[in-house]
Amino acid sequence: MAGDLYTKRRRLIQTLSVLVLLSIPFRFFCFDLDGECIRLFGAEFGLATMFYPLFGIVALLLLVVGMGMKKGRLFCSHLCPMHLFLEKVNRPKNGSASHRKGIVWLWSLLFSVMLTEVILSFFQPLENQIKLAASGNLPILGTGVALFGGFMFLFVGYQERFCKKGCPYALIQMLLQSDLTRTMKFANREKTCTNCRKCEDICPMNLRARFESKGPDCTNCNLCAEACTTELGKGNTLFHFHDPEPETAVQ
Ligand code: SF4
Ligand code: SF4
Fold it and tell me: What digits encode the pLDDT tens for the residues 122-142?
């Protein structure tokens, strides 16, 4: 039940983070070059105050990184678009190799267009982008092509390998995590594991969940625990979050 709540909360935060990203092309959150201000959901921050929202974003990121020391790779499983992409393309129903390839290209295109447009729109409204591109403006064309190409390269070519080896957050998390960081533990005391491998098929990080969920690449997304519940019946899972307690000093 606790896992259900965790997943619902994770889905809600993921949805909110996508909505914040999508609000940028609609100019609810953007840097208005003409007005020389940052717009944030109705509020305007001019030259003298525009660092307030930026400080707010940095504070939020520091909070997530700080929480990661205790709760694991929360940024990845709750906020990162790459994790959301991996969840979409790694669903077991996308099983056959050729079908998965098509799904990967489709979601890669969608995510690459979205993220490219989010970054461009932060500085230029869509109508300006179209006008500039139509007039052959090289900076906007070059930036757009470079961003789109870079995202496609990551989504199609690297996927979870980027999360494990290339993402700066993976390095930060690796440096900050300790023996007190939450891990996803596998315990098969009653020998009820049926070896169905649903936990492996669903893992966005392509981990052998039963053996690697305690490692630094696990994002604590809870999908393996859910898949196991599906296999073993309601309320039964062989995966559990483990929050280690600090050892108390012996007097
Ligand atoms: S091992 Fe489980 S919790 Fe960890 S990333 Fe894979 S599915 Fe998510
Ligand atoms: S989903 Fe559960 S039962 Fe199936 S292989 Fe994984 S741990 Fe075993």
Answer: 999 999 999 999 999 999 999
